[in-house]
Design goal:
Layout: H1 5-15, E1 33-34, E2 52-61, E3 68-74, E4 85-86, E5 89-91, H2 99-111, E6 118-123, E7 127-128, E8 133-142, E9 155-162, H3 163-166, E10 173-179, E11 182-191, E12 194-197, H4 198-211
Length: 214
């Protein structure tokens, strides 16, 4: 399987969502994906009555010979998901035109990635987190030549992982942790010293399901 930019764009044009789905704006609708994708037999871990809309960027970097995925490591002192690996992004503010604008703004604030290098190519499915966010992942191709400046209060590190590694189902392992009295399963994609898990791994699994699962 190829993981160059031409092949990626060819797949993205037919396999990604081309418009913002209703589930990203109508909170009364159930999100297609969630933190409980592997736990349908258990009580949900989240309250779905009033999810808060959010957007993240899934930045696919045009490296040679193969693409990479840009990820952040959150600082340890944050009240939400401290120390975890995450896509850049956050809440959609009233001033944002749409989810794309929110994802680009948050990415620029968190990483310093200038939006001039970023070309959105489609969307993944809306994703519901157990912390109450309805997240729309915006997939984008990122041209090289950019410079990064991590936001000191929120981002401890910025790094890249080969897309080939993340899109290999062999690297999609199911781990278990106890939550609210139940053993709950979740996707994890350990990569060296990086432990990619939870919502980030769930969205990467969605990218695999849409783009590379035949």
């Amino acid at each position: 399987m190829r993981f160059d930019a031409d092949e990626f764009l060819s797949r993205a044009s037919v396999r990604l969502l081309t418009g913002i789905p209703d589930t990203a704006t109508n909170m009364a609708l159930e999100a297609p994906r969630s933190d409980d994708d592997l736990n349908a037999h258990l009580p949900p871990t989240f309250e779905i009555s009033a999810p808060r809309p959010a957007a993240v960027l899934v930045p696919i970097v045009r490296r040679q010979p193969e693409l990479t995925v840009l990820l952040t490591q959150r600082t340890d002192h944050l009240p939400s998901h401290p120390g975890q690996v995450a896509f850049p992004g956050g809440k959609i503010d009233p001033g944002d035109a749409d989810a794309i604008a929110a994802a680009l703004r948050e990415t620029e604030e968190e990483t310093g990635l200038d939006r001039r290098f970023v070309k959105p190519v489609g969307f993944l499915d809306s994703y519901q987190t157990r912390t109450g966010f309805r997240v729309l992942p915006v997939v984008a191709l990122v041209e090289t030549g950019f410079e990064l400046v991590p936001e000191a209060g929120e981002v401890a590190d910025i790094f890249e992982v080969p897309l080939r590694f993340l899109m290999d189902p062999v690297n999609h392992v199911e781990h278990t942790r106890e939550w609210k009295g139940f053993d709950r399963r979740f996707y994890a994609m350990p990569y060296g010293e990086r432990y990619i898990w939870g919502a980030t791994a769930g969205m990467l699994r969605n990218l695999y399901d849409r783009m590379y699962r035949d």
